[in-house]
Amino acid sequence: MVNPSEYLQQIDSVIAAGKFKDNWASLSKFEVPEWYRRAKFGIFIHWGVYSVPAYDSEWYSRNMYIEGSKAHEHHLATYGHPRDFGYKDFIPMFRAEKFDAQAWASLFKQAGARYVMPVAEHHDGFQMYRSSISHYNTVEMGPERDLLGEMKTAFEEQGLTLTVSSHRAEHWFFMSHGKAFDSDIKEPLARGDFYWPAMPEPDHHDLYASPPDQEFLEDWLIRCCELVDEYRPSVFYFDWWIQHSAFKPYLKKFAAYYYNRGEEWGIPVAVNYKHDAFMFGCAVPDVERGQFANLKPYFWQTDTAVAKNSWCHTENNDYKTAGELIRDLVDIVSKNGSLLLNIGPKADGSIPDEDREILLAIGEWLRVNGEAIYDTTYWRTYGEGPTEVKEGQFTDGVTKSFTSEDIRFTVKENALYATVLSYPEDGIVTIRSLAEKSRHFQGIITSVRVLGHDEQPVWERAEEGLRVVAKNVKSDLPVVIKITLD
User: Fold this and answer.
1) Helix, strand, or coil here: 301?
2) Which domain holds residue 474?
3) Per-residue pLDDT tens over the stretch 434-481
4) Are residues 43 and 156 in the same domain?
C-alpha cells in the first residue's frame, strides 16, 4: 500500500518543479486542449457495485440505509436486513463476467464518440481500477480485473481518448445513514475501511457545513493523483461536492499536479467542475443534465444520460429517444459546448439493448452529418427559432418541442452549417439569419446542399431570409443544410 506521507511529498515536489502552482493566479494560465474543443461528443459510463441491485439509481448505497425509502424497502424484501446483508455484500456479486473492453470500444466508435469517461470511483467508494490506496477495488475484489486499465487499452486502440471521473468527495457522508439504526455500518471506522468515514450528511447548500477533515482530504487528493499517474486520463471530471470550502486548497493542489503532469507527458489535459468549485478560467465548467440558453464565449460541457431517472442501469429506466439526444447535441455544439452522454452497463458488463440502440442511432446520424459537429466552432449567432431552451442544471427531464423554424449554426472553414432541428414536411426552410440585409451575414453564398441527400435544393436569398427548397428530403431527425460562403 502507498505511504501517504511520501505521496504527499511527491505531489508537492511536482508542483514546485512545474509550470503550474497551487493558486488561482497560476492555474488561470490553463488553456482548453484543442482536441477537446474539436471532439464535441463523449460517452460517460456509470458502472459499479450499484449495478448489481440495479434498483432506484446509482445512489443505492446511500438510499438503502435510509429507513422508509423505496430503496430500503426493496432491500429488505429482496436481500434482507442491512445488518445481515449490507452494501459491501454486493461486491462479490459484481463479477463483470461479460465485460469485453474491445466490444465497448467498437460500440462507442460506431456511436461517433471521440472521448470516453468511465466513473473510476463513485460515491460508494469502490474503485474500478488497480489501486494502492484501498483494497476495495476491482483487482482485489469482485471481478479481480483492472477494468479501467482494460478500457484504456481498448479505447486508445480505437482512437478514443480516455478520460475519467471521480465522485469520491461525497463519500465523506454517503454511507452515514447506516449508523442511524442496526446495520453493518458500525463504529469504529478507520481509514481503509470500505464505509469510512460515514460522517453526518450536511446541508448540501451550505458550503461550510460538516467540513471533511485533513485525513479524508489528504486521502482524497492521493486517490485522485494516483488515477492521474497510473492511467494518464486526458480529462478529469469531478462531481458536485468539491465546491465545499474545505476542498479549495486540495483542489488547487490537484489541478496544479495534474496540469504539470500533462505538461511533463506532452498530453493536453483538462479538469471538469460544476457550480463554482474552480475559479473561472482555471478548468472547464460542466452543466449536469442541462444546457445553456445562449451561446457562451467559453468552452463548456453538458453531462446527461440516456435515461431520465438514473445514471446507472436499473430495471425500469425511463429512456430518452435518439432524436431528443441528437437535437440536444446540435444545440449544445452550436453554443460552444460538448455533450458527454452517459450509459449504464449491467453488472455483468453487457450493454443494455436500449442503450446500444440509442448509441448506434446517434452514430448513424453522425456518419452523415458529423462534418457539422466535429471540428466546428460557433458562428455569430448560435441559432434562431421560437423554442426556448431552459437554462441550468436538471432541466433535461422535459422533452423540447422543436419546430421547423428552430435552426442551429456551426461553422468550419468556408462552410456554414444550418441544422434544422425538425425538418418541415413541405421541404421549405427559411433561414432568417441569412436574409439579404441580415445583421449576422452580408457576404456571398456560392452553394447550398443538404447533407446525406442527393436532391439539389433550390435556393434564393430574399428579404425574409435564405429560402431553401428540398421537397424530397424526409427525416424525423435533424437535417443539415451546408452553405458554402465566399
Assistant:
1) strand
2) 383-485
3) 999 999 999 999 999 999 999 999 999 999 999 999 999 999 999 999
4) yes
